[in-house]
Amino acid sequence: MYKFKKISINRHCTEHLYMQLYNSIKDLIINKDIKPHEKLPPIRKLADLLDVNNITVVKAYNLLENNNYVYKKIGSGTFVSDIEDNSYLKGFDGLEGEAYEDIRLMDRGQIEVRENVINFASATPTPHLFPVSDFKEVLNEVLDRDKGLAFGYHDSKGYSPLREYIVKYLEFYKINTSIESIQIISGAQQGIDIISKALLKHGDSVIVECPTYTGAIAAFESRGVKMLKAPITRDGIDLNILEDYIERYNPKLIYTMPNFQNPTGYSYSTNTKKGLLELASKKGLIIIEDDYLNDLNFYTDENITLKSMDKNENVIYIKSFSKIFMPGLRLGFLIVPINLNNEILIAKQTSDISTSSLIQRAFDLYLRKGIWKRHITYMKKIYKERFDTMVQSLENNLPEETTFLKPMGGINFWIGLAPGFSANELYSQSINKDIAFIPGGVFYPGNSESNFFRLSIADVYPDDIKKGIEILSEAIIKYYERSNIRPQRKSSYRPIL
Ligand SMILES: Cc1ncc(COP(=O)(O)O)c(C=O)c1O
Predict the structure, then answer these.
(1) Could you tell me the distance, in angstroms and rounded to a whole number, from the CA of residue 479 to the centre of ligand 1?
(2) Residue whose CB lies within 8 A of the most ligand 1 atoms, among 261, 292, 318, 454, for a mutation test
(3) Looking at ligand 1, which residue's alpha carbon is closest to its atom 7?
(4) Out of 3, 233, 256, 265, which could bridge 407 as a Cys pair, Cβ 3.0 to 4.6 Å?
(5) C-alpha 39 chain-centroid distance
(6) Distances (CA, A) of 202 to 223, 226, 244, 352, 421
(7) Measured between alpha carbons, how far is 77 from 83 in angstroms, rounded to an integer?
(8) Ligand 1: which residues within 6 Å by Cβ?
(9) pLDDT at residue 297 above 80?
(10) Would you call 218 exposed, middle or buried from its count of C-beta atoms within 10 A (0-12, 13-18, 19+)?
């Protein structure tokens, strides 16, 4: 307890008491005054020690948990997370049978969904949304026009008319670049992989948002690098933690999704984006910006990319065409700072020589004919209806103790069970009722347990969203009721009338 005695709470300061407490404990964690897996004092004890209300401590602990500084174990208490943990083997203890197998599969980026299951797990668009007939037309045109050439090997950098057109296409997104910087890739996953191959060696450190995209965890893991976890909040990552990591570990790069992050759906504020760029520029840090969903900005205009503000060439930008066009194209591109061009090109060559010539030529025509703009408008309309239905269903049905921050766009929703409850356990119950989602532990390097889980709207129709969220909410209520532990209410005061 003696470490907590040092905490001083200023009652005359305008900052809320729980925020002061949150920041003080956060500092103790970051400075390693309290060690990973060490238990925090029980709520009442700390409240007595600091002469504050129990609710102040509850709020501070909840915020620490939401930002991944601590984790809770049912019946045992609150423990400090190991935010620099470098062990990736996950236990998934306590889960047996099909549910266990499902979650292990998800951890490897796969999912097997039975018929009749309402699938909130998959982030792959419903196939009937794919622009198949438009694509058939451009494919036929390319075959008539280019004949055998469409099936030859290609320059590893990519088909130059496509690279040239991408430079124009990027003007629409206010990104100024040149054809030399465009590297065609076979999907964003390959982008992450070849950047890792080109720039990282065993033992290097990289910073990842926490939680983050499982495919990135796997790519970094395969390089044997140390992942430093930067907790993600509603405004993006905490720049103080970032600076601290840079100073202590000299990381090679940071992997980010500044808009509609996967899995949380949160976006960095413009200030955080600017702060990140400034820091990267000052410290010579490479930023990977994974832009997999930027177009789905339903309720914000702040979805500006880091790349469009990158004056000092710190950003490697990755664009995926999977979510907005078709994942099976296996097509995307990088914008690479000129000084890294060669290393990235060599890594691409050794990965798959080049991306399919036929697909590059067809997509080039698809862009040049302007069909992409029409398709994006169509996809935005479909997804917005699903997004609004999801928000409304969550607001109407989720039990009060369950948290959810409405994102401003995208396809992912990050839901928090009451502290101490397990999303893995909820999964094993809800899959029996034909509802699938992804338990949060899958998105944390080295962690298998979380009270959070991800719901995606990519592969569900509005009617199924309504029905699915009702069933899921019912399962959550039952889970709370069955447990001996009362979920802590959301810390807000209510009238007793
Ligand atoms: C954040 C993020 N990056 C990259 C990818 C992989 O995209 P692609 O299909 O272009 O390889 C995904 C796929 O879900 C993703 O969510």
Answers:
(1) 32
(2) 292
(3) 188
(4) 265
(5) 28
(6) 6, 8, 22, 22, 36
(7) 18
(8) 123, 187-189, 213, 215, 257, 262, 290, 292, 320, 322, 327, 332
(9) yes
(10) middle
CATH placement of domain 2-80? 1.10.10.10
If one residue of 262, 296, 412 were mutated to test the ligand 1 pocket, choosing by the most ligand atoms within 8 A of its CB, it would be 262
* Strand runs labelled E in 214-337: 226-233, 236-237, 253-256, 286-291, 315-320, 332-335
Which is it for strands 118-119 and 253-256: parallel, antiparallel or unpaired?
unpaired
Cβ atoms of residues 487 and 421 within 8 Å: yes
CA distance 259 to 410: 8
Nearest to 228 by CA among 352, 83, 381: 83
Question: Ligand 1 centroid vs 444 CA: distance in angstroms?
Answer: 16
DSSP code for 410: S
CA angle 330, 333, 335 (to 5 degrees): 165
> What distance in angstroms lies between residue 199's CA and the mean position of ligand 1's atoms?
20
Q: How many CB atoms lie within 10 A of CB 380?
A: 17
Q: Do domains 2-80 and 147-370 have the same CATH topology?
A: no
Answer whether residue 81 shows pLDDT above 50: yes
189, 232, 352: which to mutate for ligand 1, most atoms within 8 A of CB?
Answer: 189
How many Å lie between the centroid of ligand 1 and the Cα of residue 411? 13
**Domain topology for 147-370:** Aspartate Aminotransferase; domain 2 (3.40.640)
Contact 439, 427 (CB under 8 A): yes
Structural contact between residues 316 and 334, judged by C-beta atoms closer than 8 angstroms = yes
> Phi and psi at residue 323, in whole multiples of 5°?
-80, -30
- CATH number of this structure's domain 97-128+375-482, picked from the four choices 3.30.10.20, 3.40.50.620, 1.20.1560.10, 3.90.1150.10: 3.90.1150.10
Beta bridge partners of 183: 334
CB contact at 8 A, 253 and 198: no
**What are the structural domain ranges in the chain?**
2-80, 97-128+375-482, 147-370
Query: What's the 103 CA to ligand 1 centre distance in angstroms?
Result: 19
Give alpha helix (H) positions in 357-437: 357-368, 371-397, 423-430
Q: What is the pLDDT of residues 220-277, one digit of tens each?
A: 999 899 999 998 888 999 898 899 899 989 999 999 999 999 999 999 999 999 999 9
List the structure tokens of 2: 């003696």
pLDDT above 80 for 15: no
Q: What is the pLDDT of residues 137-170, one digit of tens each?
A: 999 999 999 999 999 888 999 999 999 999 999 9
Query: How far apart are alpha carbons 455 and 421 in whole angstroms?
Result: 17
Ligand 1 mean position, distance from CA 50 (Å): 46
Q: What is the largest CA-CA distance in the chain?
A: 80
Please give the structure tokens belonging to residue 87. Answer: 């062990």
Distance 215 CA to ligand 1 centre (A): 7
